[in-house]
Amino acid sequence: MLAINGSYGSLENIYWGLPIVIYPFLSGLLAGSFVVGALYHLFHVEKLKPVSQLSLIASFAMLLIAAIAPLADALQPSRAIWELYLRDHFPYSPLGMFIILWTIFAITFVFELYYLFRESNIKRAAEDKGIKGKIARIMTLNSTDLSPKSIARDHKALWIISILGIILSILFHGYVGFLFGAIKARALWSDPVIPPMFIASAVVSGIAFVGLLYGVGFPLFSNKNKVKPDTLDVLNMSLVYAIFADLFFDLVEWLYSVRGYNSKEVYDNWHAVYSYAAHGPLWFNYHILQIGGGLVVPAFLFLMFKKVRSSLFWTILLDFIVTVSVFEMRFNTVIGGQLPTRIGQGLVNLRIPFWTFDGYLTGIGLFGLGLVIIFVLGYFLGWEHDPEELSVPPKAKYKFDWDAGEDGRK
User: Fold this and answer.
1) Domain definitions of the chain by residue range
2) Cα separation of 208 and 202, whole Å?
3) Which burial class, exposed, middle or buried, applies to 183 when counting CB atoms under 10 A from its CB (0-12, 13-18, 19+)?
4) Overall pTM > 0.90
5) DSSP string, 205-246
6) Where does the pLDDT of residue 405 fall: very low under 50, low under 70, confident under 90, or very high at 90 and above?
7) Does domain 14-73+83-339+361-381 correspond to CATH entry 3.40.50.2300?
8) What integer pLDDT is reported at residue 71 of this predicted model?
């Protein structure tokens, strides 16, 4: 527990600890990673083809772990099935929306995994007689059709699923911001800017996370996997645009919440927690890790220097910094909103344990488990990517004609 003056048994504690910080962080990685893959399937950004499958694998892994994070904060995770699906708390509880969105999203991922990997799984099932080939054969559902007409249908299905997935990504992560923005008892949470700010930062974290995985993990799976400077360039430039949107909402929040459009209580709380006089408990987290060093500096370097955007070293370094920045945003929002006391004076002391269920070890374990799932899925689904092996989406505009040929026309 985090208590006033660091003493346990105090009247005020921080009850939403690190697992609740991890939850919006992981769900942001989920939504943002999905957007990266959707850019290829919807707009045919050819330079993003090497990360189209990778982004979906990362997004699906984060979907699984995002559901575990709130359970880590619950003292009875064994009751999860009952609480989530069998208890009648929708539409009475806002958390009921999480159950519906998560389930729909999971079903959507099953279909996208099928269509996205169907072509490569058919080829792997025919060539590999080991465990990977057997799993590939199961995932194809005994389909062996690689005709141009069948492949065109796959691309059209992915186009439709990508649209649905983007909508679900916005709803899934936007509602997290809504939960905080709707809590009027906490002055630093009661802010209508929080939902779009969460969505913008989710896109930032997803692009940076895919860039990290592409730069670090992609070459580990096969000698065929070569990191392409052009792909890094497009990813990092997309990241710059997302950072600009994120900084815009940060500025709006600062102007709205701190200055003349809100109560003195909000201003006093903001100043006490994120103090510009460099004595607030989250001053360094907010101004250096989240805004200055975490967003402004990477955006400037990526925007001004093409060699930096195309460099593997700088991509890994700056994408890691941006990912940490988004985590700090979640930390500052969840923890910072609970620091102002409700019945006392001053702030609740910030002290996060290491070993307990709401400590650092839980956060490290959750994120580490997500990375393990990504690499396991990458191994069995096929992280190897040769641009010449797989077909590309048809160039013609889709007309939802499932009998169309390879070029998208009858």
Assistant:
1) 14-73+83-339+361-381
2) 10
3) middle
4) no
5) HHHHHHHHHHHHTGGGS-TT----HHHHHHHHHHHHHHHHHH
6) very low
7) no
8) 76
